Amino acid sequence: MAKAKKSKLKIVKAKKAKKPVAKKANGLPSPSKKPFGQAGLALDGVRILDFTHVQSGPTCTQLLAWFGADVIKIERPGIGDITRGQLVDVKGADSLYFTMLNHNKRSITIDSKHKKGKEILDRLIKECDVLVENFAPGALDRMGLTWEHIHKLNPRMIVASVKGFGPGPYEDCKVYENVAQCTGGSASTTGFRDGPPLVTGAQIGDSGTGLHLALGIVTALYQRSRTGRGQKVLCAMQDGVLNLARVKLRDQQRLKHGPLTEFSQYGEGIPFGDAVPRAGNDSGGGQPGRILKCKGAPQDPNAYIYFITQAPVWEPICDVIGEPTWKTDPEYATPKARLPKLNQIFSRIEQWTMTKTKFEAMEILNKYDIPCGPILSMKELAEDQSLRKTGTVVEVDHPKRGKYLSVGNPIKLSDSISKVKRSPLLGEHTDEILKDVLNYSAKEIADIKLSGAITAPEKKEKAA
Ligand code: CAO
Fold this sequence. Notes:
alpha/beta; 6-stranded parallel beta sheet; binds oxidized coenzyme A
C-alpha cells in the first residue's frame, strides 16, 4: 500500500491502522470496543490516482474515499471536471452535480499533455496503488499512459477503467448514462407495453457501473496482497446495465416455454412476441405487484403505493380489503386462478388503498406482512429523519455554496468510519500533494508553476 502521508483532509491515519488487533485468550480477534462504524478506515493506506470525470468514475472513487482511501483527483488546469460547471444553481460555486460525486477527495491540477505534467504524473503513479479513469476509449494511451508504461513504473499498480462498451463493434464509442440504459437492455424492458421504451431515473449506467468498478478494484487489491502484482480492471457500462437487468434475460429464455404469466398482458389475453415486453409496474419477482392510487391521487403525483399480492399473505389481503370470500372462492383462492384476473383484483385493492394515505396503508399492511412501499418523493426523502440518522442523507457545508444535502455512503461497515467531507475546490491540494506526496521542494514547486503544467493558460501569462 502507498505510504500514508499527512493531508489537510486527514483522510489517512496510518498509525491507527497499524495498531495490533486485540486478541482474546483463545488467540482470535476481539470485536471492536468502539461504537458502530468508528473503529478505523477500511481502506486506510490505499492511495488512488483519480483520473475520473462526470459520473461513473467519480461514483467509484467517492466510495473508495468514503472507506478511507486517499483519493487524489487529477483535473485539467483552469477547467477541472466538466461537471463543476454543469447544472449550476449557485453562481460562482461548484455545482451539486460535482460536489455530490466528489466528497472526501483531494484535487490537484495537472496538464497531462504538458512535458512537466507528464513527469508529475509518472511520480504519482509510483506513489499510488490504483489509477481509475473513465476517459473516452484511447484517451489514456494518447496521454502516454499505456498499461505498459504504467506497469513499468509501478508493477503493483491496478488500472481500473469504465468504458461504454467492452471489446466488440462499439468499443470505440463514447457513452453517456441513457445510451448505456438503452444498449444494456433496461430501456427495452422499462415502460408500458403500448408506449415507447423508457429510461429510468436511477443512474444505473453511470453510478451502477461505478459501483461495479469499485468492487473490481477492491477485489484486485485483495488479489494483489497474494501476488504482489497489479492488474487491469474494466467495467463496460453496457455490461453493468445488463447485469442489473439480468432478470429480463431470465424472462427472455422463459418466453420459449410459454407466456410470462405474471405480466398484466397475460391476463389481458394479449399475445407475447419474441422479445421480453415492457412490463409497466408489474413485479418481476413472480409475485404479482402494481402501483396503486392512495388518498390524494392523482392530484398529488406521489400519492401511490406499491402493492404485492404475495401468495402466503393472500388471506390477510382479502380481509383487509373487505373481500373475505375470496379466501376460499376457487376463482380467487390460488395464485394460478388469480393470474387471468389481476386487473380486476388490483382495481378492487385500489378501491381500498384510495381510502387511505400511502403511509396509513403502509402501516396497516405491514401489520400483516403484506409487502408494500409508499412512493416517496425526493422532497420526502430529503426530509426523512431516519435517513439523516443513519448518514444515508447528510448535510454538508461548502465554503462557496454553503450547506447542501447529499447522499452519504449507503454501505455501512461496523468497523469503518464513513464521514462525508466536502468536495475539493479545483486544485485546492495541488501544493500539498506536490510537497507531501511527491516530495518536491519549494523551489521545484515554484518552477512547476512557471512551467504552465499545473496552471490554466491565463494564469501562466500573468506569471510570465
Ligand atoms: N490534461 C490535459 N488533457 C486532459 C486532461 C488533463 N488533465 N484530462 C482530460 N484531458 C483530455 C483527454 O486527454 C482527451 O483528449 P484527447 O481526446 O485529445 O485524447 C480530452 O480531454 C477529452 O476526454 P474525453 O474524450 O474522455 O472527454 P469527452 O468530454 O469528449 O467525453 C465521455 C466524455 C464521458 C463521453 C467519455 O469520456 C467517455 O465515453 N468515457 C467512457 C464512458 C463513461 O465513463 N461514460 C460516463 C459518462 S457520465 O459518467
